[in-house]
């Protein structure tokens, strides 16, 4: 098995499915923008990048890699043939969340990171609901957080510019950081959000 590949439903998931420079482009970006690594990583959209982050995280001294996906069987296949590092936490979550009543306390695919009450050094957005995830990413970012988005050229993702400054546009990924004014505006807002969450969401 390749270093960055895994088997799912009898087929091999590998880099060439996403472009020959998928992994090399990501690694170059990480080398350019994360000189000291990342203690905490948040990823929406589990897959090959989970393997990259878990490998680098071992050398960075990463304390938490939270990888979120809406397809549990796919997510679980990533580490079936290899050991999963202890700092990797996998969460398979419904995109919409429950809709039993107007007071449903549970968080969903995009909002779940709020339940940890922590900020992340590196955030990778490559799954569902990317604009919604970008808003949550803004809430769980500190001023130096690096946010990476895949398929960034799509028109429906350009609203992210309202929250983030663009540091680099590559062949595969856009690298962003919170705009200074947004950092200040969200500081109080983040605390309000955390206080509003039902106590059962505390992790």
> Total strand count, please?
9
Oligomer classification: single chain
Bin the strand percentage.
Answer: 15-25%
The major beta sheet can be summarized as: 7 strands, mixed
- The structural class is alpha/beta
CATH architecture descriptor: 3-Layer(aba) Sandwich
How many domains make up the coordinates? 1
* Cα-to-Cα separation, first versus last residue: 35 Å
**What's the rounded overall pLDDT mean?**
93
**CATH homologous superfamily identity:** Vaccinia Virus protein VP39
- The proportion of residues forming helix, as a percent range, comes to 25-40%
CATH class: Alpha Beta
Number of helices: 5
| Unreliable residue runs | none
Cα radius of gyration in angstroms: 17 Å
Kindly report the CATH topology: Rossmann fold
Shape: globular
SSE string:
EEHEHEHEEHEEEH
Strand order of the largest sheet: 5-4-3-6-7-9-8
């Amino acid at each position: 098995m390749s270093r960055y590949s895994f088997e799912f439903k009898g087929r091999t998931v590998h880099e060439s499915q996403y472009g020959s420079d998928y992994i090399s482009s990501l690694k170059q970006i990480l080398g350019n923008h994360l000189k000291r690594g990342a203690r905490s990583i948040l990823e929406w959209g589990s897959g090959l990048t989970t393997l990259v982050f878990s490998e680098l995280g071992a050398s960075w001294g990463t304390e938490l890699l939270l990888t979120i996906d809406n397809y549990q069987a796919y997510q679980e296949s990533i580490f079936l043939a290899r050991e999963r590092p202890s700092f990797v936490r996998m969460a398979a979550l419904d995109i919409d969340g429950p809709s039993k009543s107007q007071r449903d306390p549970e968080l969903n695919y995009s909002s779940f990171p709020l339940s940890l009450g922590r900020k992340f050094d590196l955030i990778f957005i490559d799954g569902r609901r990317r604009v919604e995830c970008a808003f949550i990413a803004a809430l769980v970012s500190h001023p130096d957080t690096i946010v990476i988005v895949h398929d960034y050229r799509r028109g429906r993702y350009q609203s992210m510019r309202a929250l983030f400054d663009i540091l680099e546009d590559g062949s595969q990924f856009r690298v962003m950081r919170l705009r200074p004014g947004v950092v200040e505006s969200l500081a109080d807002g983040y605390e309000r959000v955390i206080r509003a969450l039902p106590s059962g969401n505390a992790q």
